[in-house]
Amino acid sequence: MRQLLPHSIRNTMRNMRGYHWLLCMFLPLTVNADISILPRPVSVQPGEGTFTLKADTRVIADNAAQKTAQMFTSWMAPSTGYTLSVAAGKGAENTIQFALDPSLARLGDEGYLLEVTPKRVSIRAPKEAGLFYGAQSLRQIFPPAIFASTLQKDVAWSAPAVKIEDQPRFRWRGAMLDVCRHFAPKEFVLRFIDLLAVHKFNTFHWHLTDDQGWRIEIRKYPRLTEVGAWRRHTRLGHERNPKGFDRKPHGGFYTQNDIREVVEYARQRHITVVPEIEMPGHAQAAIAAYPELGVTGEQLEVWPRWGVNANIFNPSEKTILFLQDVLTEVLTLFPGPFVHIGGDEAIKDQWKASAEVQARIKELGLKDEHEMQSYIVRRMDKFLADRGRRLIGWDEILEGGLAPGATVMSWRGVEGGITAAKAGHDVVMAPTTHVYLDYAQSQEPGELPNIGGNLPLEKVYSFEPVPAALTADEARHVLGAQGNIWTEYMQSPGHVEYMAFPRLTAISEVTWTPAAKRNYEDFLKRMRVHEGRYRALDLNFRPVPDAPPAAPPAAR
Ligand code: ACM
Are 89 and 63 in contact (CB under 8 A)? Predict the structure, then answer.
């Protein structure tokens, strides 16, 4: 895999190797080089000595902390072979204690305090989510092999003494997975959620409907998945340089039971699932299932190509009620506050050409097709608000006027997010410039197929979700950021992993760690250790560039 690295980086790496030893000799022993937590915690104070996990280590948790403690022991079991018992009690020698502690309210809903001494470990947090993140940090203090799914022999499971106080910078720390362009089996979705949890993400945005496939069972409209979940064949080569089609049917969908399982699995890992049901564009699979939802009435096929096409839902009252029926079922499956209604790349040509749509625009007193889209979004906004939920959509929902309760996901740069935040709306930053993980990771030969562009790790890491153009008050509307994984050119879970990692790890630090604590060189150094965790997890990651040489030690 090294051949993927440019010469300059490889040379730097060689130079650094010799130098690194020298540097280590000067490091005072109290600086604990073994602590490499991703994302970087707010405060890490190394202590003296190590705690060693043994077969007879006891895990202590009262009722409220039991679930997290059990989850922690389930992570430890495969690699260590220890079946650690969890019981109520007091922290004593050779124990790991989990405890809710209301006196730590200053750490917020997701913060924690982790203390490791040679005698015992304690994780305390005001809320369960904090305990969970404390457990994730503790997991990363042990040798990387602890992440393996098989028994690791002859490893001393020691953790250096440390005191960590930590809480996230943003409340929306997310990743979007497109399961429409290529269907992701449920088992991979669950694995992806575990990978998100390792990195303290709390939001999984599940892109469930698009031109190339409708992936969520809707009981009232069975053809959405009977027809809309399957395409005849798929584009070969890049859409810019197409090489015909593959002659292989592709498809799949999640039953409502599958969805419940995924949502519950995520909930146990403190991850909220945000479903996305695209409207009014990216609708061809739905129109293929029910041609009356389209504008032309034509029987379309589920789209086998990539890019954007002109097929769009007609904006009739019947279609709006259909979409609300779909959302009604969606709401029973996804308990989280947000529902994503898409809204991007809705080409209005068919609306412009249709006498019926033009009559509707006139009848509703709307100015143009943008206001027509805005009308649909407002109807969905009210529908969701009446049911206690919040609408989120791509930044095109600003065009034609933003619905009163809408949150904007800014993808065409951060400008849409700035406009929305200035207008008092919440925003999530997900610009193509920094977090589109379908873009190439380098311009070197040997990258796996991708949509194009160039988004190396360092650029992802440099992302600042709060634009300087916002005042402090406006900046409070930036809920956070997320990485987006569009899967046109990713045919397998392994390919998704390669595009996602390590860049998603960088995004975890962008969204968790205080801006002042972010440092790319330090990140790369910790990534050296984190790669060991990736390997233990059997992750198909792209090799991480080497850290540039550290500055020479200061004169003493
Ligand atoms: C998008 O990338 N079309 C939201």
Answer: no
Q: Which of 125, 142, 166 is the last residue of a domain?
A: 166
Where does residue 552 rank: exposed (0-12), middle (13-18), buried (19+ CB within 10 A)?
A: exposed
| 155 shares its domain with 78 | yes
Which helix (H) or strand (E) element contains residue 40? none
Same domain, 306 and 213: yes
pLDDT digits (tens, 9 = 90+) for 321-336: 999 999 999 999 999 9
Strand partners, 329: none
Mean pLDDT computed over every residue of the chain:
93
Segment holding 372, helix H or strand E:
helix 369-386
Using the atom order of ligand 1, give the atom closest to the CA of residue 432: 2
Choose the weakest-confidence range: 12-26, 52-66, 424-438: 12-26
Closest C-alpha to ligand 1, atom 2: 411
User: How far apart are the CA of 94 and the centre of ligand 1, in A?
Assistant: 51
Range of the domain at 502: 172-536
Please give the average per-residue pLDDT across 208-215, as a whole number: 98
Same domain, 424 and 372: yes
Active site residues: 210, 282, 345
Ligand 1 mean position, distance from CA 206 (Å) = 13
